[in-house]
Amino acid sequence: MDGTLLAGSACLELSRRAGHIGDVEEMEERWGRGEIGHVEFYELLLPLWAELGEEDIEEVFAGVPWLAGIEEVWRDIDARGERSVVITLSPQFFADKLRGLGLHEAYGAEVLAGGEVVPERVLTPESKVYIATEVLERLGLGSDDTVAYGDSASDVPLFEILDNTVSVNGSDSLAEHAAVAYRGSDLREAYALGRELLDGTPFLLSPTGRQKEDAGKP
User: How far apart are CA 192 and CA 22, in angstroms?
Assistant: First the structure.
């Protein structure tokens, strides 16, 4: 979700609303460097959100810089009888709101603002592989039947087990594992690349065009 569907981080935007943006920017940098783990990150973070209510969360969700075309992409997926799934290290309560835009399934860290952290309910990059594998098995699909989209090192484990992968404004560490890479602000353009990888069926692009880069695999 973060970086792939929105230009930024749900945790940062929620922290901005809570008045702790500087503290959490530092925490995210430490997290990215591996100085603190996923569980410790939320143990430090959740108390800072203690004053956030549902109205705050709704307003943050409505105001974050989402990529263009998300609802159109998910409508197209639904019309084809396919499933759209988001797996994120960010909070489940935030990812769940994507269902209102047409998403079929959302998986995230099962945490609550101001609540206690249950380590088993905090996702890791490896969790993305476990969840994706479970979803494919439940739907009776194989790895060739899906396309993964991501932007950061947390998506590397998933990209390593799939062939149809699209880096969306991705880091260098992810791009080398992706079949194709996209840079831009329109999910419809990244999705069109994914459809080419999956089955070659067309998707009507927005008038803005697209930028396609070779990355890792031909």
Answer: 37
